[in-house]
Automatic annotation (TrEMBL):
It comes from Maledivibacter halophilus. SUPFAM superfamilies: Nucleotide-diphospho-sugar transferases. InterPro entries: Nucleotide-diphossugar_trans. This is Glycosyltransferase, GT2 family.
Length: 286
């Protein structure tokens, strides 16, 4: 086994959203089971019990290991505890993948990315993604290629049609990490990231930037030889208290990496000036 998946498993406790989330999970696992040798370490974030999740997962040909007991402890902490479980119990597995429930995969989508990492100095890599509104990320944000089919065979054809033998700068989920480097940078430090969501990706990108060395001008990469469907933010933006969580994690990010962390993030996110503005605000307060 070369790779283990990690997944914060969260079903919203609301009649309006519960069936929608279960449908997301069904589409995710139905597609994931097509790949070879799949093992998923998932953290139960709620609102189903562990028994209910196990019953749900019994419908799919996927090996799973469940940790957590249904409490929403936040994305960063849930993912970190999945990482730590893998490091403790599967230290020989070289790659760790982060996925979300709102994703759909083609068979063995990960193989081109794993092969890329085997011969590259890169610590991590993403595929390209197609979002629910038909945008291709990271190459064409804001531009839709048209309506995305929901029927799997048609979606599979679309995902295979847009692949290219190209590497682009940019970061999206899913992402595949080299496990040993992820462990060396520490993963997600939830002592700083106390909110349930927000800026966890920026935290880990800075960890990789410092690991690779700022002199290298490192940026995350996407290898477009593989594409995944990712609805993108399909659950997160409906949660109550999200603004407070984002602000809490932004403060934690500043405590962890300081003003220069914002400065470096403005370079990592070349089309987003929000971190440059945050850096300038820090300077004004001195």
């Amino acid at each position: 086994m070369e790779m283990i998946y990690t997944l914060p498993f969260f079903i919203r406790n609301d009649e309006k959203y519960c069936s929608y989330d279960l449908d997301l999970a069904h589409r995710c696992f139905s597609s994931l089971q097509l790949s070879d040798d799949v093992l998923v370490v998932l953290y139960n974030q709620g609102c189903l019990t562990n028994d209910e999740i196990e019953d749900f997962l019994s419908n799919y040909r996927i090996r799973t290991i469940m940790i957590g007991n249904g409490e929403n402890i936040g994305i960063a902490k849930a993912r970190q505890l999945c990482f730590e479980y893998i490091w403790e119990n599967y230290s020989e597995v070289p790659f760790i993948c982060e996925i979300h429930l709102d994703m759909v995969f083609t068979k063995n989508w990960h193989i081109p990315l794993v092969d890329f990492l085997k011969v590259s100095d890169e610590p991590m890599v993403s595929p390209g993604i197609i979002t629910s509104n038909g945008e291709l990320h990271p190459i064409n944000k804001g531009v839709s290629i048209g309506k995305v089919p929901m029927e799997y065979k048609k979606l599979e054809i679309l995902l295979n049609r847009v692949i290219k033998e190209e590497i682009w700068e940019g970061f999206v989920h899913p992402v595949i990490h080299k496990s040993n480097i992820l462990q060396e940078i520490g993963g997600y430090d939830y002592h700083f990231l106390k909110g349930k969501q927000g800026y966890e990706d920026d935290s880990i990108l800075l960890g990789y930037l410092y690991y690779m060395g700022t002199r290298t001008n490192w940026k995350p990469k996407a290898y477009l030889k593989s594409y995944v469907y990712h609805a993108s933010m399909a659950q997160r933006m409906t949660l109550q208290g999200k603004e407070e969580d984002f602000n809490l994690n932004l403060r934690g990010l500043f405590y962890q990496y300081g003003g220069y962390g914002f400065k470096f993030l403005s370079k990592l996110h070349k089309n987003d000036d929000s971190f440059q503005k945050l850096f300038e605000n820090v300077l004004k307060q001195l």
